[in-house]
């Protein structure tokens, strides 16, 4: 099925699988269509699934006691998303994960993933590679947030993920980069002026 092809390509780019192994891997995923503004993870409920984005854009965020939203992650095509702390430890979630656009995702539940890892070392390797890349990405982000100016954070993110910058609402990008929407607006306007 066409929905599974992008996941198959994603798997093959990281680990070499036989056709039989690929079929075994993807058979544990279910196709889910979600509407814009629909939640797939909410605080206090266990995140049942790890989700691979076939089409669309999603956002993971937390809400602080003062009602401020803080974006933790985005996911567009060929990316994964979940509340990983909740999913991996099977504990209640602390994050919201919501669709920013109508989306198609492939979801695997924790039990099926555990079974896959036991069934074949290659499956375990794939999930390890995914976890390592996610950890490295979070580390880069923490360091960037601690050592760079707001402008540098925007420039760096825009250079690496221009498609995300174009597609997500400005307030979500501002909260991800740790600045106000107004300040992000100023940075973007300055960039446009400098181009002209």
Automatic annotation (TrEMBL):
Read off the InterPro entries from this record. Answer: cNMP-bd_dom, cNMP-bd_dom_sf, RmlC-like_jellyroll
Pinpoint the Cyclic nucleotide-binding domain residues: 33-111
Which Pfam family, giving just one, matches this sequence?
A: cNMP_binding
Recorded protein name is Crp/Fnr family transcriptional regulator
UniProt organism field = Flavobacterium tagetis
Q: What is the lineage of its organism?
A: Bacteria, Pseudomonadati, Bacteroidota, Flavobacteriia, Flavobacteriales
């Amino acid at each position: 099925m066409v929905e599974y092809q992008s996941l198959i390509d994603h798997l093959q780019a990281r680990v070499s699988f036989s056709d039989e192994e690929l079929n075994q891997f993807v058979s544990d995923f279910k196709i889910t269509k979600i509407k814009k503004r629909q939640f797939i993870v909410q605080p206090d409920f266990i995140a049942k699934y790890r989700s691979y984005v076939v089409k669309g854009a999603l956002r993971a965020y937390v809400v602080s006691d003062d009602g401020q939203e803080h974006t933790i992650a985005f996911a567009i095509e060929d990316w994964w998303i979940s509340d990983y702390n909740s999913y991996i430890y099977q504990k209640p979630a602390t994050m919201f994960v919501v669709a920013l656009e109508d989306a198609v995702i492939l979801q695997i539940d924790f039990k099926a993933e555990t079974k896959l890892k036991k069934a074949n070392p290659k499956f375990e390797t794939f999930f390890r590679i995914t976890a390592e890349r996610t950890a490295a990405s979070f580390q880069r982000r923490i360091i960037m947030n601690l050592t760079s100016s707001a402008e540098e954070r925007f420039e760096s993110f825009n250079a690496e993920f221009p498609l995300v910058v174009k597609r997500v609402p400005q307030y979500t990008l501002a909260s991800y980069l740790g600045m106000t929407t107004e300040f992000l607006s100023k940075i973007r306007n300055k960039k446009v002026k400098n181009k002209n």
